[in-house]
């Protein structure tokens, strides 16, 4: 971090949320570059995952091995992964002055296991308190678009990678379910207007990158101190 920015600002924690294929990973990488080009130390990470233990839980869940356990148990697994991630990676980086950009975080548990999975709001809230350990994101960017268009993006990625177009077990869910999920993310953003910003993700990657940078720089003006014009 440059001396000027470290002297005037603390490190920020920014999460990206939204359905599958809306461009979260693409934009997390682009924002990381922007921050670094502006002399700000930053790391990117993802959920579930980010640490060895959390990545082990990720592969267990995404292989479908916890599916029969039910949404409540999966919420507990996601929270266990999150607790390790917060303690081992997120909190130490923030404490050291490094910004943290995370591809999905606690709102995904609210949206997937809570609002669409039917897990009781109180359990979701208790797990959140435990796993976040006080580390509520400073900003959450919700990338919003029609899931059908986002699906086509994911299919194209799989075709380009020479993969069978099957999707992981979440991506196999019905389109209607994904529309409900989209509404869930919008409801979360609506309930947390001071933290969340909803951006239309159905646009060109470069244009979306510009909108995200404008959002981050407006929210944290110190990020652009010394930025190129
Ligand atoms: N704005 C965009 N327009 C078109 N395709 C995009 C855009 N952003 C990302 N993609 C492509 O769509 C696919 C899914 O993007 P990705 O960033 O992995 O989404 P997510 O992390 O939300 O699942 C990738 O193949 C990516 O290259
Ligand atoms: C973090 C988190 C993810 N998930 C789901 C969302 C995704 O379907 C999956 C993560 O897979 P991933 O391949 O990272 O999805 P994407 O590319 O769409 O971001 O796990 C939950 O159900 N709850 C959670 O708390």
Please characterize this protein's 3D structure:
- Phosphorylation of dTMP to form dTDP in both de novo and salvage pathways of dTTP synthesis.
- Belongs to the thymidylate kinase family.
- Pfam families: Thymidylate_kin.
- This is Thymidylate kinase.
- Its EC number is 2.7.4.9.
- The protein has 229 residues and is of the alpha/beta class.
- It has one domain: 3-Layer(aba) Sandwich (Rossmann fold), CATH 3.40.50.
- The chain is built from nine helices and five strands, in the order αβαβααβααβααβα.
- It has a five-stranded parallel β-sheet with strand order 2-3-1-4-5, sandwiched between helices.
- α2 packs across α9.
- The radius of gyration is 17 Å and the shape is globular.
- Bound molecules: adenosine-5'-diphosphate and thymidine-5'-diphosphate (TYD).
- The site of adenosine-5'-diphosphate has 13 residues, from α2, α7 and α9.
Write the layout of secondary structure elements.
Elements: H1 3-8, E1 13-17, H2 24-37, E2 42-46, H3 52-62, H4 71-95, E3 99-103, H5 106-115, H6 121-132, E4 139-144, H7 147-160, H8 175-191, E5 196-200, H9 205-219
Parallel strand pairs: 1-3, 1-4, 2-3, 4-5
The structure holds adenosine-5'-diphosphate (ADP) and thymidine-5'-diphosphate.
Thymidine-5'-diphosphate binds at residues 20, 24, 47-48, 62, 78, 104, 108-109, 112-113, 170.
């Amino acid at each position: 971090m440059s001396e000027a920015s470290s002297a005037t600002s603390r490190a920020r924690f920014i999460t990206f949320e939204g359905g599958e294929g809306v461009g979260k990973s693409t934009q997390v990488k682009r924002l990381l570059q922007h921050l670094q080009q502006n002399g700000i130390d930053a790391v990117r990470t993802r959920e579930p995952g980010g640490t060895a233990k959390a990545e082990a839980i990720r592969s267990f869940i995404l292989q479908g091995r916890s599916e029969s356990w039910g949404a409540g148990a999966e919420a507990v697994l996601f929270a266990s992964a999150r607790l390790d991630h917060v303690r081992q990676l997120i909190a130490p980086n923030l404490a050291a002055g490094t910004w943290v950009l995370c591809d999905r975080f606690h709102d995904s548990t609210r949206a997937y296991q809570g609002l669409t999975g039917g897990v009781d709001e109180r359990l979701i809230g208790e797990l959140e308190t435990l796993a976040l350990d006080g580390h509520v994101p400073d900003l959450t960017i919700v990338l919003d678009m029609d899931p059908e268009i986002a699906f086509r993006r994911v299919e194209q990625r799989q075709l380009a990678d020479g993969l069978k177009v099957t999707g992981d077990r979440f991506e196999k869910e019905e389109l209607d379910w994904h529309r409900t999920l989209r509404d869930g993310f919008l409801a979360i953003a609506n309930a947390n207007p001071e933290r969340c910003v909803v951006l239309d993700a159905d646009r060109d990657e470069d244009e979306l990158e510009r909108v995200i940078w404008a959002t981050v720089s407006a929210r944290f003006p110190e990020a652009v101190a010394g930025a190129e014009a």
